[in-house]
Amino acid sequence: MDAVRAAVVGTGLIGGSVLLRLVEAGVPVRGWDPDPDTRRYGRERGVDFPDDLARTVRDAGVVFLAGPLVTLPATVAEVAAAAPVDCVLTDVGSTKSAVAVAARRHGLTGRFVPGHPMAGTERAGLAAARPELLRGATWVLCPDQPADLGPFRRLARLLMDVFAARVTPMSPEAHDEAAALASHVPHVLARALAGAAGRSPVRDSVRALAAGSFRDGTRVAGTPSRRTADMLLGNRAAVLEQLTAVRAYLDELAAAVEADDAPVLTRLLAEARALRVALPAPPDRPALPARPGRPALTDVTGPDAAPEDVAAVAERLSFSAPDGAEELAWLLGLGASGGWLTGCEPGLGTVTWTARRLRPPDRSPVDRSPVDPVRDAGSPPSPGGPARAAEPGQKVT
Amino acid sequence: MDAVRAAVVGTGLIGGSVLLRLVEAGVPVRGWDPDPDTRRYGRERGVDFPDDLARTVRDAGVVFLAGPLVTLPATVAEVAAAAPVDCVLTDVGSTKSAVAVAARRHGLTGRFVPGHPMAGTERAGLAAARPELLRGATWVLCPDQPADLGPFRRLARLLMDVFAARVTPMSPEAHDEAAALASHVPHVLARALAGAAGRSPVRDSVRALAAGSFRDGTRVAGTPSRRTADMLLGNRAAVLEQLTAVRAYLDELAAAVEADDAPVLTRLLAEARALRVALPAPPDRPALPARPGRPALTDVTGPDAAPEDVAAVAERLSFSAPDGAEELAWLLGLGASGGWLTGCEPGLGTVTWTARRLRPPDRSPVDRSPVDPVRDAGSPPSPGGPARAAEPGQKVT
């Protein structure tokens, strides 16, 4: 990926942030956007923004497609026709199956690697873009055929190098299923809460009383509505399936409240809490670079581990490059188990990946947080003093 | 409230934060907690922590009761018996009807003012307490009888002076109804999302992909489960009623996704968004002090207004102190309309309140955020350039 030229097509919030980070990292890059004002705005900030899409991508080694979801299938074909034949194409859309199908239909398997950085804000537009927006983000990439892993490897290295990304390999279908629950359904819940508050007879006192739980729970309800609608309808089946699962849990919680059943309610709450406290640390620090020479499958959870390693175990595996089947299977298995790549070392006839894989969460329904009502007013039992963080390293805001 | 002595009974997260702020503000204050380790921990930090509850409150002018919800009815009676007869008692529990009923039963109307600061974290214990936790918080107080407004006024002034609180007067019943939607139901939704993720076959990839929407939407699922169960069961009827309203909106959203109906889905999303962007600015800055001499009902939304004033209109009203009926009606109406007190000026036979009252949100279902899919990739139409914050002053994280 040395001296690669890059291009970003569609420079809104995400594309613009990709562009700004590439500029910051010293990668030669051009931007393009269908909106002339955005191109002018980009030029005024010193970025090369040709008016012509074909000229933007004609000598690129990698192109990021970052327009709205519904435009991607058409854009990928147009860009592929204009870009060099060995150029790697990727996108940043929030659903992956539809664009992967479109790319296969256009015969682009092996050139197009569907992607999705799990980051964003409820804002939009190049002016809202920031080079650090995607820093350390989990970034799904969808490798396809075993024989076509070259573009995937090149792109993964670029993302790790430039964005300190946690590159998570997944099939488009596995991505869409997990993203429905990890991202799309939370948008639905946020709108349901905000929408019900807007229709409530006590709407204005709800607004005044809106505490952290309401503000956090509805933050993404500020996202432009068309963008959210495209996302939900672009992943319809998986969203409906995961909504059903969430509503089933909601029904159980409501039934326990209705029945005034404190033990059952507390058990359900604690079961949910176990998942929350088992989330990997948020990527406010980028993953550490892979350390060459570290033995395979080393557990790095000792005192020497970085905070974000607490829930993850390091792996290191080498593959013979010509046969990608075993490598592809390992990559997809890694993503399915909540793992991500931390490094790629190409060798003579081999490729070596380093990675981290999440530990399973504590499935025990026992809430280890204080439950004794008397003690809950004060400090926990000694030893350790009254410090009572729910979880080491857990973010408290 | 000059030279008032204060006491805090139950020094966990909230009580501890009240205590630390009172210390910081130079108010003489004693703490008490049923846990000996907490009392020792407090003493080691230089705070007066008697072992005896009666001694803690015997010369207090105001006592904050901050133990777990289920202990409050008993604690309020015990403290009232030990404190001076003109001491104002208040609590910080997240539901108000039950404790108000208990206080009336103990004949404490006129001494006990139920309270609820709308702030917190998912942590617990004195070591997690911070003096700034409640700074600028919306703080509900429940005045009761018109003849007994004196303690309410004294307490409101203390909270405004020491905590820069947005004191919101409400009846216990109005508080519980609004808090169910503004705080309690968001906890249920967070647990439903986290709980469904924990049971999902793709649990581990959901953990890895958990983006801002999932993390924000489940943050409060890290709260100690017993505390959350007590909160929900302590406000059972209102929680169930508001859950029904949220599930109805959720059903409408799901039906629109199921029907693949983009116009209806977008309209529902935009309706919800209108409420979200109409939340008052979060209290990361305390409310400005009331400005004496400002004429009544002055609109302060001009260029001269502070950011948190954008959604609120200032009011100033004087009442003859002896008859509290009109004053009480105004106070409760203020809270019901999403207003809060900003100052209290006692005079000769009069009391003058300054306040802010929320404007109604824009009820238009039109989402003024960018909806054009082409433009959504880039910048908005001129004029104004490509800056595209969803709402002026909206927090973006």
TrEMBL record, chains A, B:
Residues 284-304, 355-397 are annotated as: Disordered. Residues 4-287 form the Prephenate/arogenate dehydrogenase domain. InterPro entries: 6-PGluconate_DH-like_C_sf (IPR008927), NAD(P)-bd_dom_sf (IPR036291), PDH_C (IPR046825), PDH_N (IPR046826), Preph/Arog_dehydrog (IPR050812), Prephen_DH (IPR003099). Keywords: Oxidoreductase. Signal peptide: none annotated. Residues 287-304, 376-397 have a biased composition (Low complexity). It comes from the Bacteria. It holds the Pfam family PDH_C. Residues 359-375 have a biased composition (Basic and acidic residues). SUPFAM superfamilies: 6-phosphogluconate dehydrogenase C-terminal domain-like, NAD(P)-binding Rossmann-fold domains. Belongs to the prephenate/arogenate dehydrogenase family. This is Prephenate dehydrogenase. It comes from Plantactinospora siamensis.
